[in-house]
Specification:
394 residues, mainly beta, 11% helix
Length: 394
């Protein structure tokens, strides 16, 4: 009889361990239809979704909330943490739709709010927030509600969002606030280019956030990066229409947490207002921006491909005759190329009190109407390496 060698014994042992792990980590599934949800797009299924969440949250097993194909009418919902389940997956094969009357959601801060959760994954699905009617209200200068964010994650950890479509948000599409270890991949965001305050993904007071392979078409910043953001990685994001990728507005508060260790690479901007922007109000602050890497970006007819604006003061309210206290240093722009729709393709307008330092341009090639573009520098110190077009003003 053939004797098993030690490697074969090891393989058999591993198989037994894997089977044991699989047997103890079975996922308990909860179908929203079992809780009374109706996939007809007309019956309010809010209560059914909350009941499914409560069941999944209170289970000691890994759980899945399953949303089959169909359209589900939902009002504002809050999914609270403190769950027994170590991992909750929400798999959406259908479409979640907001009420037709924009005031129903408009008076809420969020449509779907996750707070204090750990190990939640959102997989697939579409969300139609019915934003255009609220945008029209705001355009007519009527007495309109502010509007709701589609997805909000607050004080949460180990979050995964994949293959989601967010359509026509009233306000922001996705907000990541006070979170840790968040992975967003394959998300599509769509709203009209003139839709107000419809930022695609907003990150603040969070660390270890990855945003990968996303397409964002909206009326405000594609990605907005707020105070307290640390270790943010953005890669293979396509932006346009929209206001570009923006760090700021900063200096909203006197004592404000800084932004650090941000990498944005392999991004494409198509006819956006800005490309890569750092923006702060012209007023005192203890905040800072440092350790930012803008790498390998393509600009297609972008108004302001590279811009630092530390004199942001819309309507000259609460900031005239003041200067920004935000300290900006160690910022690298490398491999930035394409076309600007304005003559000034690089603009560094920094604070006279706190000049930008450690700014580096390397292998930058931006043109304007097939002609040389220009650069503009104010209160900035740095250097240019290798090819830099337009000619550096550093």
């Amino acid at each position: 009889m053939m004797k098993l060698t030690r490697p074969f014994h090891g393989i058999i042992l591993i198989l037994f361990v894997m089977l044991a792990i699989n047997s103890t980590s079975a996922t308990t599934k909860y179908n929203v239809l079992s809780f009374g949800a109706k996939p007809n797009g007309k019956t309010d299924s809010t209560k059914a979704f909350l009941m499914a969440w409560e069941a999944a949250c209170s289970s000691a097993d890994s759980t899945m909330i399953y949303v089959p194909k169909g359209r589900y009418l939902l009002g504002s919902m809050a999914f609270k943490g403190g769950c027994k389940s170590p991992q909750i997956t929400i798999r959406i094969d259908g479409t979640l739709v907001a009420p037709q009357d924009y005031r129903v959601l408009g008076k809420s801060t969020d449509w779907l709010n996750f707070e204090g959760v750990n190990g939640v994954s959102i997989l697939g699905g579409a969300l139609d927030a019915k934003g255009p009617s609220l945008w029209a209200c705001k355009a007519s200068h009527s007495n309109c509600p502010s509007g709701a964010t589609v997805f909000s994650f607050t004080n949460s950890k180990n979050i995964r969002i994949r293959r989601l479509l967010s359509l026509n948000s009233q306000m922001f599409h996705i907000v990541i606030n006070g979170c840790e270890n968040v992975h967003v991949q394959g998300v599509r965001i769509i709203a009209a280019g003139d839709s107000p305050n419809t930022d695609g993904i907003h990150v603040q007071l969070s660390k270890n956030v990855n945003i990968i392979k996303c397409s964002i078409k909206t009326g405000d910043d594609c990605i907005s990066i707020g105070p307290g953001t640390k270790n943010l990685w953005v890669e293979q994001v396509t932006c346009g229409p929209g206001h570009g990728i923006s760090i700021g507005s900063l200096a909203k508060d006197l004592k404000e947490e800084g932004v650090q260790n941000v990498t944005i690479r392999k991004t494409t901007f198509m006819e956006t207002q800005n490309g890569l922007r750092i923006k702060s109000w012209a007023r005192p602050s203890t905040g800072f921006v440092q350790g930012v890497r803008f790498l390998d970006s393509l600009m297609r007819n972008v108004q302001n491909p590279i811009v630092i604006d530390q004199n942001y003061c819309p309507h000259n309210l609460n900031c005239p005759n003041q200067v920004s206290g935000i300290k900006i240093k160690d910022i690298i722009y490398e491999g930035i190329r394409g076309t600007s729709s304005t003559q000034v393709a690089i603009k560094f307008d920094c604070s006279p009190k706190n000049p930008c330092t450690g700014i580096r341009l390397q292998n930058v090639n931006l043109s304007y109407l097939n002609k040389p573009a220009q650069s503009s520098c104010s209160n900035v110190r740095g250097k240019a390496l290798n090819l830099v077009r337009p000619e550096s003003c550093l």
